Amino acid sequence: MRYSEGWRPLNVAIVGGGIGGMSAAIALRRAGHQVTIYEKNDFAGEVGASVSCAANGTRWLHEWDVDIAKGDPVVLKKLINRDWKTGEPVSVYDLADYEERWGYVYNMFHRQKMHFMLKESALAEEGKGAPAVLKLNHRCSSIDLETNVIDFENGYSAKHDLIVGADGIGSVVRGILGITPERRPSDQSCLHANVDADEAAKLGLANYSDDSALEYWGGQEGKWDKIVLSPCNGGKLLSYYCFFPREQGDNTNQTWGAEGRPVEDLLKPYPALDRQVFNHLAIGKEIQPWRLWVHDPYPYLSKKNVCLLGDAGHPMMPHQSQGACMAIEDAAALGILFSKNAFNGNVEQTLEAYQLVRLPRATRVQAAAAKAAYNINERIGFSCNKNTATYKVEDPKNILTIEEMNAYDMYSDVNEKLARIAGIEYDDNYVSGLPVGLELPNGVTIGAKL
Description:
Layout: E1 11-15, H1 19-30, E2 34-38, E3 50-53, H2 55-63, E4 74-75, E5 78-82, E6 89-94, H3 98-102, E7 107-110, H4 111-123, E8 133-135, E9 140-144, E10 149-152, E11 157-159, E12 162-165, H5 172-176, E13 183-185, E14 188-196, H6 197-202, E15 213-218, E16 226-232, E17 237-245, H7 263-267, H8 275-281, E18 285-290, E19 293-295, E20 302-303, E21 306-308, H9 323-337, H10 347-372, H11 402-406, H12 410-422, E22 430-431, E23 434-435
Parallel strand pairs: 1-2, 1-12, 2-8, 5-15, 12-21
Antiparallel strand pairs: 3-7, 4-7, 5-6, 9-10, 10-11, 13-19, 14-17, 14-18, 15-16, 16-17, 20-21, 22-23
Helix pairs in contact: 1-4, 1-9, 2-9, 9-10, 10-12
Keywords: FAD, Flavoprotein, Monooxygenase, Oxidoreductase
Domain FAD dependent oxidoreductase: 12-52
Protein name: FAD-binding domain-containing protein
């Protein structure tokens, strides 16, 4: 189906140069548009953490011809949930056939290297489309929704045809669109730490790098205590997320990137933790607080010629490891919708389709991530390990599954939503991007009448 008789190249502004913003720059550059990225910082002094990129994110990196090797990823082979005290595996989800089933691997990146990888693709002279332009130290102060003029705190102003707000959980653009977040502090706090795998090996500690796995301690007991280990930098760095009840330490007013916290703060909440991983945390570096807020879904993602992307539009708890993938999918949706096969020249109408495509899917992941905060059985992968002795979920028919995430066809979803807006009958064999007849492990069949 073709909707693009009125296609025209756009002058696009992306407010925010993080992972989501760079992804959007690549997608829109590939679609034939001129892109300028406005970043409020200078990227100096960032402290790195790991970023999970499952197949539903990795597929777009391939489609955009991103040089994934520059991100030095670990390809995950398993998800392992371990007993809190003994470290023995409780629930294992094997990813051995993951690429065969879904066409792409499950990558784990270090944030800084992933950002570098995406920035290279967005700004490089080679590759399809005009290179994006990056302007650092440009903090957005206002946007005129009638004229599409952006004003920045440094006095610079610019007019664009399309403005993408990719400015994170504290988004200025979101406020300009009239969205006031309904949010509350999570009952859970988190400290992040990096552990050098070679240093751990020299001390004779467990070599978790060999597992090539996302590993979890706890989460089976309905408590807030949980340790998450993500290997990155080709396995040379172990990125730890350490969760505990907020009453044991409230980080809601702390800022990531400040001076690192003492290792004693990292160890204090875990007197009964498996000594193998506890000893890893004891050599943790760059210990940083991560503020956790629970956001209710936003009512919309766009207004006039301005839209939101990633955490600016649907901030979520980290417990489904889908935050970056949702931002990448947002970017992919913009790339498809503004492509020569889809864009009819009407930016506002096209952003209505963007909202129809992205808001339901991101909202579903957002809700599932909140559930998985205190019950790891709700996490994609473990959600299907029903033979685990401690398996229990809130609603077996509503669990989020790998099938739902990775069988999704965004092109079909876009065509369905464009047809709806145009009043055209949509007759493809998909519903919201999922193939009709697909049987999900939760017992739901796509397209079946309830």
